[in-house]
């Protein structure tokens, strides 16, 4: 159910993306309180991106979930995901936005239907 999409202007060539995906997946599942087997992480690199008028390393993310989000969870998710990006991709925490969407199951397609 939870889906985290991250786009960054950092090249992923030579980066261990598996460790980023794994760490992000377990973090999202734990903090939202959903089974990890329903968590999807999408990571796109080398996306043309400007933040604050510069093309220094930056990232943008959107997290969609059916429930499990609230101000405290969102704050913890923002801190955890930004820490992963800073450690693994050298994207400063101050150059990352994360937008949260809490949606209904009927607005989330899965397995040929909706949830």
TrEMBL record:
Coiled-coil segments on the chain, per record: none
Tree of life domain: Eukaryota
InterPro entries assigned: Macrophage_inhib_fac, Tautomerase/MIF_sf
Family label: Belongs to the MIF family.
Protein name according to UniProt: Macrophage migration inhibitory factor
Organism annotation: Cardamine amara subsp. amara
Organism lineage: Eukaryota, Viridiplantae, Streptophyta, Embryophyta, Tracheophyta
């Amino acid at each position: 159910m939870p889906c985290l999409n991250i786009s960054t202007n950092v090249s992923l060539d030579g980066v261990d993306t598996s460790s980023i995906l794994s760490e992000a997946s377990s973090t999202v599942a734990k903090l939202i309180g959903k089974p990890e087997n329903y968590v999807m992480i999408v990571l796109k690199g080398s996306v043309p991106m400007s933040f604050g008028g510069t093309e220094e390393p930056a990232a943008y993310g959107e997290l969609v979930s059916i429930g499990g989000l609230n101000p405290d969870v969102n704050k913890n998710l923002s801190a955890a995901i930004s820490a992963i990006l800073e450690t693994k991709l050298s994207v400063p925490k101050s150059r990352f936005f994360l937008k949260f969407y809490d949606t209904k199951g009927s607005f989330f397609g899965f397995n040929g239907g909706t949830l």
